[in-house]
Each structure stands twice: as structure tokens, then as C-alpha cells.
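Archive entry. Fields below.
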Amino acid sequence: MVRVLHHLALCVALGSLLILWLRSHQLAAAIVSSLQNISRVALLLVLLATMLLLASHGEVLLPEADLVTRMTAAMHTWIGQIILVQAALGAGALLMTSLTHWRLLPLVVVFSSAALTALRSHIVAAGDVGVLSAATVIHIAIAILWLSSIAALVLMSLPFSRQADFDWRALLQSISRRAVPAMLLLLATGVMLADRTVGTGAALVATPYGVALILKLLMVAGALFCAWQLRRWLARTDGKDLASPTRWLRVESAFAVMVVVFAGLIAITIPAAHDIIHWPFSFRIAPAAAYLQRGTEVLWLPLAGAVVLIAALLFALRLRKYSPYRALLTVTAGILGAAGLSVPALSVDAYPSTYLHSPIPYDASSISIGEQHYQQWCVSCHGEHGRGDGPLASTLRKPPANLTEPHVQWHTHGDLYWWITHGIVASGMPGFSQQLTDDERWQLLNFLTAMSMGYEARPLSPRVAPKDPWLPAIDFRYTDASGDSISLSAWREQGKMVLLHFANDVASQRIMTSENTQCVIVVARSVAARTEKNAPSSSADNSCDVVYDADAQITSAWSHYRRTLNDPDFKNERISLNGMRFLIDRFGFVRSRWAADEPAPDSAQLRTMLAQLMNEPEIRSADIHARR
Amino acid sequence: MTPRLVSWLLGWLITAMPLLTHAHAYLVSSDPPHKANLSAAPARLKLKFSEPIEVAFIKLVLKRDGQPLNQTLIMIPGPDKRSVVIESAPSDAGNYQLDWSIVARDGHRTEGHVMFSIKSR
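PREDICTED_STRUCTURE:
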């Protein structure tokens, strides 16, 4: 709540200084003096709040230390130093409040102090220089101006500032006129920031952060409704009767205070984009998944919804001349009607775990363990190779799912996790929450993902499909030439691409590399054993890391990605990867692949491909390895 | 533009406005990764966070089979202040948990842990 006190005090200080700057020449000396006193009290509160902010930051840093140590520690951090500058500016402004000329000066100083809040925000502190940081600064500056203007108007509507010849209407008009471009900027920057902190619609409705944001936006909408009423009053009257606008203004200021309260709440909540989503509904809106599951029938109701919405909008356009309220109601009804028709059609089933992300890394080890679980618990129905043809399949009333078909990819990992845990009532599949631990179910899912993706990966070719990363590389750990244990994904961390080569014999390998590409050769077990007798460093190409896949775990996991259009190997007769090469981009996606018997790209082609991938921006997050 | 139209526009526009958003640093990746099953001891441990952290206020506790280890952890912050390397990595087989607690540059403390196991040879 210290933040709320800080922001509200800042807005009152700014509001009173704003009036003093704009209108002091029209005001009686007593009112000017009162406004100066209000600004001083507000600035003292600002100073108090900054000290409290510093103390609470110190408590975060060193919870067990005494107050002085905490404050000293806080002063050595980024946040602490900004708070100190804000406090210094506030104190400076306090000394300037008595100025009879240069009234703009304290206003600018307090506004700068308030705008520095942007530097404490997540996006700027996170080091996102450029557009997003600029958007944050603009967004916060405009929000402060908006709240300060409301404070200014409220101050001038209070009994102490009543003055017969003061043109309150002109003040409102001047502020109202500037509000439109300001709000447009607020929108543009707000959308950019929300995209960063929330990310998805699911995160907006199903996380505390998202819900707080929605509530705050409702408060903003309430404030804007009042602003609309004020504008209507401006357009309608000559400004003599102040009862109606004063009432609307007080309601608006109450909404504004609530906006600040919710903003303070949001500030201490985990951003939706990073929070765990426990989905509260039994459905989720997913047009693409609904279309894949049900075909073109999903289109009819949304089309009907669009017709309803257009009809409501046209009707409202005619109505607005007679009754804006009825027009508003008509549009609301149109939106609700369109949503009522479209949402069920464009939705698919969802579960509390639908948006959960796997805590288990997508790596060879987990896929190997997952395969063991599959062999123990799933084979009898889904079959040895996942085709739904297990020994018990024919005895079931509904045939088990063929896990090699594309439908596996239509569901989220969280959906599959729910079915493995709780079973599927409609099909008679049992749940495995008793037989498998939480981690084991996610390991099983990693295996299913690798198997399913392997079938999807058949069209992968030696040529890179531009800007279409989708197949996550399977991570694994190995010991490099210097004896350090590292993982394949470590190269991704360094922004390097990887040329991954599965071979039987390391001595014969010659792989072109570039400064942006690391080559990694995985050698099959028997050859590795023989080579180790000599020395690993005797590999043909010193720039390549050589991995001895002693227990064939890496080869086994990656062999899911061996299927090609020419050789899909549906019968699983040739699970060897000998000679196959995979090109992994710097964000961890397999982008091209060629088998030993396929025409490999020559060095010029390879160089072009590598350059193409180096120039490609990040299209999908590397987080896809854990999240989908 | 009529006032009503402006208000309508604003009503629509404003629904996307977050205000004064702050956030927290979270663990982007770790080496070894969370719940990794290692066949060889790692040379070092590495934590990478989503944003710069106040490196002077990192708290780390390494536990083996649930018991905190008494060894001093040698920490080296990365040049971008988003990562930290722990040079004193464990070498014995066992189940390990590295508890981390950090303060992001935006002033929020976050906590978490990374679990991994080293198989006995």
C-alpha cells in the first residue's frame, strides 16, 4: 500500500501544481495559498512514502538485518538509487512550492520524479532497451498526467476553491481536449506492455495477475464512462450548473483511486506470462484445434454470430441519435449474442492442467525412462509402436487411440497429462495416478511427444524451410574434450547452431563448421568402446565434440526423428541413425535433416543455409521445449 | 469527432491498458536442468534468469538427499548479471537440490530450486 500512497500523493501534488501553473492568475490569494499548502503536504507524503519504499526494499534484500543495515543495502541497488533520486527531486520541489514565478519548475521536477517510476518497472529494469522501455516510460508518464488532471479538477471543485468568476468549464474543456491523443498513446503502449507481461488470453483470465488487470481495466472503463458523461455535459450546457459534473468527477476520481490500488496489487503479483495456469473452465477457445477436430461445421455458428453483431451495430447506429444508452445496450447485446453463438463452436474440451508445462526437460534420458513406462503400462492397449493395436485392443468397446497419428499434436501437453492421470471416461481408458508419479507421467509424455513428432517430421528435408521452426531438438548431456559435462542445449544458450551427426565411425567424419556452428558427432556404442582404447582426442576433426553414446540412450531417443517420406519405416524395422545429420538452429529447433543415402547439401549450400538461419530472428520461444 | 464517438473509442482502447507493471525474475534455464538424471558429475552449476539480478544479494543452498551441505559455494556472476555460475559443484552420487533466492533488478525477490541426481557408477 506504500506504492498506492506514493502514487496518490504524487498525483495530488501534481494536480495542485498544475492548477497553480495554469490558473493562479485567475485565483484569489487565499485559494493560491491553500493550493500551495496542499502541494506541500502532498510532497511531504511523497517523501515519507519514498523512505518507506526504501525501507521495504531493504527488507526484501536483508530480512533479518536492522533498519539501518537494510536501508544502506537498499541504497546500493538499482531500485534504491532510483528511489533516492525520486526523493531528492521531491525535496527540491518542496522548496520550490513558494515560487510566485517559474511555477512550471516545481511541476516539471515532481513530474520527472514521478516518471522515474518507469525506471523501476520490470521492463526497463530487465534491461529491455529500445521500444518496450520507451513504451513503458510513455505509458507511465501519460497515466500520471491523467491521474493528476483528475486530481486538479477535483481540487478545483472542492468548497475551499469555489470562486464566482473562475471558469471551471474552461479548465475541464482544456483538459478534456488533450485527453484524446493521450489516451490513444496510452492504448498503443498498453497493448505492447500487456503482450509482454500477459502474453496469452488464457493467462489473462486464469492467473491472479490477469484477473487483477481485468479488474483494473474495469475501473478504467468506469472512469472513462464518467469522462464521457463530463464531455456530454460540456457539449450540452453553458457551464453554470456544476452539480452534475462535480458528481461525475467525484465518481471518476473514486474509479481512479481504485485504478491506482489495482496497479499496486499488480506490481506485487507474478506476471501472468510467467505464472502457472490452473485452467478454471471445462472448455477453452481454440479455433484451430476445434477446426482440426470437427471440420467446417465449426464455421457456421460464428458466421451467424458475425451477422448478429453486424445487425446490432447497424441498429445501434440508427438508435444513437435518439438514445445513446439504448445504442450502448444494443451493441452489448450484439456482442454477447455473437459470443454466445461463436464460443461453443470454436471451443474444445479443457482441464485444470491444460496449460501446465512439463517440469521435466525434453531430453534423451527422460524419453528413455518414459519409454520404459510406456512398455509397462500402455503397450497392452496402444501397441508396441503406439498404433493402437495392442493385444487387448480388440477386447475394448472403443479402439485405443493411434498415437502415431497427427491428432496427438492437436492437444496441449497439459491435456495429455490429464488423460494419463485421470483416464478418459468416454473411451474407458484408466488413469495412472496410482501407478506413476507426477514426474513419471511427464516422462511418459516426453516419450509420446518424441514418438508423435517423429511421424510428423517425415517431410523434413536437407533444405531448410524458412521461418518455420517447430521440431524441438532432443537434449542430452555429454563429456566434451576437456572433460566437462555439458548439454547440447548449452550451445543454444551461446547462440550457436549445431550440426548433429550420428555415425558408426568417428575417424571417417569430415564436417564443415563455421564460427556460429558447433558440430557434435554421436558415435554408436560398439565403436565408442573401441575408440576409447585409443584416445578420444584422436577424432578426425578436432573442432567437433565427439559423444560416445555408451548406453545408446541418445541414439534411441533421436531415432524417433529418423522417419522420412521415402523411408517412413512404419514397421520399425530400421531404427538405425547411422550417417543421419540434423541441423539445429540457434533457438533449439531441428531445421533440416539428411540421411546417409540422401544427397547431402554441398558446402556452398550448407553455408547458405547456415547464413539463412543466422539471420532468422527468434520465431518461437525456446521455452517450447518445456512448454507448448 | 463527436464527444460520444471519442468516448466510445477510448472505452475500447483503454481495455488494453496495464499500468505501472512490475514483475519478477524467473529461472530461464539451469545446467544441469531441473530433474536431470546425470550419469557423470557436472563440472559446475549454472543458473540463468530472465533478467538482471542484484548479484550481491543471491542466496544459494545446496542440499544432498535433503541435508544442506556445509561447503561454501563459490559464485561467479555472469557479465550480463542474468546468470550465476557455481564453481563448487558436487561430485558424489546422490539426489541434489539447489535452493536459490534472488532479487531482480526491479526489486522483487523470487525463490525456487533445481533438483538433479547423479547416478552412482
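CURATOR_NOTE: Confidence is low (pLDDT under 50) at residues 530-540, 624-628 of chain A.
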